Amino acid sequence: MKKQWLMAMIIGLVLAQGAWAAGKHYEMRVDGLACPFCAYGIEKKFKAIEGVEAIDVDLDKGLVSVDTGDEVTFTDEQMKQLFGDSGFTYRSMKVTPR
Question: I want to staple 83 with a disulfide (CB 3.0 to 4.6 A). Which of 31, 38, 48, 88 is the partner?
Answer without folding.
Answer: 88
